[in-house]
Each structure stands twice: as structure tokens, then as C-alpha cells.
Amino acid sequence: MQNQTPPLILTFGAADPIGAIGIQADLATFAAMGCHGLSVVTGLVIGDTTHIEDIEITEADTVADQARVVLEDMAVAAFKVGAVGSVENVSVIAEIVSDYPDIVLVLDPFVSAIPDDVQEIDDLLMAMRELLIPQSTLMVLSTVELARLAETWREPSADDTLDVDAMRVIELGCEFLLVTGTPCEMHEISNTLYSDAGVVRQDKWPRLPGTFTGAGSTLSAAIAALMANGLEAPEAVFEAQEFTNAALNGAQRLGMGKLVPDRYFWAREPGLQH
């Protein structure tokens, strides 16, 4: 007898050799959430747990071919878009997802560890603003990333423009925006979810010791998986934060650099070990 098919999620992103960010991180998170991950490689990362040296960008035609072949064969419940690598890749991904307007799209395109000089950053931001953000169900940005994106429509500012910038992203067509690292007490981490109604929810978590790579990737992939499983955005955002916090609590030092989240922490709990 054939088992019930789990929700399928197609992720666009870079392949990371250490599995902290990008495709490998997404696939691990999807699996932990009971989903099956499909992947389109937009670039190849050269790096380790200390830093990323470079990224080799995949040609746009290859990105399109990977996605079209998969989508002709399988019905997906959600898209996740991570690091896109080039303006040309933004264009082809936007064209592909526009053919599936009813499917959840979680957009998390910033990889802060990738040097800006590797990417045509201003052109990339403009392309995402015009082509991908308007199609997004939910976008994930840190406060620093939001401020950088906002510089595509305003001058840099030392003022507190967080709420204004967040609502501008919503006005661009994004249904929900989750901003991570919003202002709070020093010993806490605060994340704020916005919609066209303003602030939907704000969640605070204890600030964990250590430095991590892959926390953001884990969070956005978990949101995509939970929405693929049928949760509405506010509930998915909260549960994804719970999952990410637990994965960071169990983070592992795989190399000499930053800690990597353990997306399979639940499988290592004492009661589940054999």
C-alpha cells in the first residue's frame, strides 16, 4: 500500500558544503517538519564554519531547467527562495513562481555571510523588490537587512525607521514580513511579524550564548514547512521560532568556527535514543 505523500517544498538556494545554510539546511529542516524537500541550486558556496570565501553562481537557464522539470512532475505545497545569486536568477525564479500564484512563497534572500562584492547587491535588491517581493506570502529580514533594502527607496538614515520600512515592504505586495532582531532587552531576541494591519505579533526569546551560522535559514525553512502543512502565517511563525530556538540550544561545533543548528535535536532526546 502506498503511504500518504508528505507535503513537497521546492527551495531555490545555494549549495553549502557544511550544511549550515542554503539547500542542505532547508532539506534538513523540511524533513524534521515532516515534509519532503525538492531543490534548485542557484549557486555553489565555497566556505566553512568560519566564513564564506566565494560563491559560484548557477546560470539562469540551468536554474530554470531544474525547476521546470521538477514542477512538471510533482505538485508542490510551498516555495522557499533563498540566495538567488544574480539578477538573471531573480528574473527566472519570479517567472516560474508567477505560474503558481496560489502556492505559498517564503522569501529569505539575504545571506549576510556572503561578501557584497560577490553579488551585484544594488541591482539584486532592486530586482527582488520589483519581481519577488510582490509575489511573496512571507518575507524574512533582519533589521540590518531591512535597512539595507530600504536604501533602494530612501537615503540612509540614523533615525528609527523600522516600522515605516516594514510597512513599505508590505505595500510592495508582500503579505507578511517577519523582521528578526527587533529592539528589546539585551538578554533577549525579539522578532516582529507585520501585515497590512501593522504588527501582528512580537515574540521574545532568551539570547543564547555563542555565535551561529544557519539560524536564519532554519527559521525561514521551518516557516515554509509549517505553512506547507496548513498552518496560517502567524501560527507558523511562532512554531518555527520555537523549533529554531531548540535547534540553536542543541547547536553543534562541527568545525573551528561558528555553531551549526541541530535540526534533528528531537531525535537525540534521551527517550528517543536506542
SSE diagram, text form:
Layout: E1 8-15, H1 22-32, E2 36-47, E3 52-57, H2 60-73, E4 78-81, H3 87-97, E5 104-107, H4 121-132, E6 138-142, H5 143-150, H6 162-171, E7 176-182, E8 188-195, E9 198-206, H7 215-228, H8 233-249
Parallel strand pairs: 1-2, 1-4, 4-5, 5-6, 6-7
Antiparallel strand pairs: 2-3, 7-8, 8-9
Helix pairs in contact: 1-7, 2-3, 3-4, 5-6, 7-8
List keywords for this structure.
274 residues, alpha/beta, nine-stranded mixed beta sheet
What helical percentage do the residues reach?
25-40%
What is the N-to-C succession of helices and strands? EHEEHEHEHEHHEEEHH
Radius of gyration: 18 Å
Describe the global form.
Answer: globular
Strand order of the largest sheet: 3-2-1-4-5-6-7-8-9
Judged by helices, strands and strand pairing, the structural class is: alpha/beta
The CATH architecture of the domain at 8-141 and 207-262 comes to: 3-Layer(aba) Sandwich
Beta-strand content estimate? 15-25%
- Number of DSSP helical runs: 8
Question: Could you walk me through the main structural features you see in this protein, from its secondary elements to its overall organization?
Answer:
- The protein is an alpha/beta fold and 274 residues long.
- The chain has a domain at 8-141 and 207-262: UDP-N-acetylmuramoyl-L-alanine:D-glutamate ligase (3-Layer(aba) Sandwich).
- The protein contains eight helices and nine strands.
- It has helices spanning 22-32, 60-73, 87-97, 121-132, 143-150, 162-171, 215-228, 233-249; strands at 8-15, 36-47, 52-57, 78-81, 104-107, 138-142, 176-182, 188-195, 198-206.
- A nine-stranded mixed β-sheet has the order 3-2-1-4-5-6-7-8-9, sandwiched between helices.
- Strand 2 (36-47) and strand 3 (52-57) form a beta hairpin.
- Helix 1 (22-32) crosses helix 7 and helix 7 crosses helix 8 (233-249).
- It is globular and about 50 Å long.
- The protein starts with 7 loop residues before the first strand and ends in a 25-residue tail after the last helix.
- The mean pLDDT is 92.
